[in-house]
Write a structure and sequence with these properties.
Largest sheet: none
Low-confidence stretches: 1-6
Mean pLDDT: 78
Number of strands: 0
Shape: elongated
Number of helices: 5
Helix content: 40-55%
Order of helices and strands: HHHHH
Amino acid sequence: MEKTAKEHTLYNYVHFGCRCEKCKYLKYLQNQKIRHKQQQKHDYSWMDNANCNDMDTDFFFSESSYKQKVAVKICYGCVVKNDCLKYALRKNCKYGIFAGMDPNERKCYSSTCSII
């Protein structure tokens, strides 16, 4: 189907300079989608700075109390600990050590504090 200048499309806004309210709104929605995608791309960039970045995940998702203690020590002093905790709470992670906390500790923490 051939595009005409009378149709209300993002194509018309960009190529024909149509500035009607409907075309402006379509442009606005397009910009919102682009911003949302850009934010999603950068959501997890903090993980690159985590102490556990190059570690074996077995320590963080183990039933062994020894491995869990090692994971907690790795988390101690991590510069992105707060981001890690926010991630675990937002994603409702039911398993593993995040920000030096096991699931029960995170559950208690989330019920008493609101960091999100």
